[in-house]
Amino acid sequence: MLRVLGLACLTAWPAVACETALVLAIDVSGSIDGGDYILQTEGLAAALTDPELAEALVRGQVALAVVQWSGAAQQTLVLPWQRMLTDRDVTRFADSAAAMPRAFKGSDTAVGEGLRFALSQFSAVPDCQRLVVDISGDGQENAGYTDARAKSEAIAAGVMVNAIAIEDPGQAFPITSYYRAWVITPGGFVMSARGLQDYARTLRLKLLRELVKPVG
């Protein structure tokens, strides 16, 4: 009996180490119209299937999930946690992202509630070494008013929060300044997309910065 158990231990598959658990928290508030939503989903799919990024996802055995958030009490997990163990896993997740339905329409922008909901998802991936929320949006909080509390909760939980600020074309960066002041955690960063047409490129660069050269 003991010899059988010993053999089983010798032949068992080693545990897979999850380097990073990453929640992608996407703004679907009223300022995001139908075309903008498609640009976000297609941009996410395009970024994930970039060869360099796909390699980084598999190498780090990254766990991915997608949350959509809008106004107060309007947050949902649209793509549950999936481990990127092979290239096919990445492709399948990207395809799901491109096809995912929109959860909410025409509501306010509760950034803090969106972040808090994203933070609550990490209990499902306790084996991952780094916990990161990527939140993207095109407006400042105008409902819920919990952004500062959510940021404090992320810091206390050891979660890094980074952001994509979707800015209107021009010289001003009001959304970038808002995310930098109220949302991202120490050691985190904000990247600015000039309109949603620039979302895929910015997201790809942001994910590479997080996964190839970890911050913090």
Tags for this model:
8 helices, alpha/beta, 216 residues, disordered N terminus
Written description of the protein model:
This protein is of the alpha/beta class. It has a single domain (22-211), classed as Rossmann fold (3-Layer(aba) Sandwich), CATH 3.40.50. The protein is 41% helix and 21% strand. Strands 3-2-1-4-5-6 form a six-stranded mixed sheet, with helices on both faces. The radius of gyration is 18 Å and the shape is globular. The model is unreliable at 1-15 (pLDDT under 50).
Low-confidence stretches: 1-15
Named CATH topology: Rossmann fold
CATH class: Alpha Beta
Look at the structure and give the mean pLDDT: 89
CATH H-level name... which superfamily? von Willebrand factor, type A domain
**Number of E-state strands:** 6
Spatial order of strands in the largest sheet: 3-2-1-4-5-6
**The biggest beta sheet, please?**
6 strands, mixed
What are the secondary-structure elements, in order, as H or E? HEHHEEHHEHEHEH
* Total domain modules: 1
- Please tell me the CATH architecture by its name: 3-Layer(aba) Sandwich
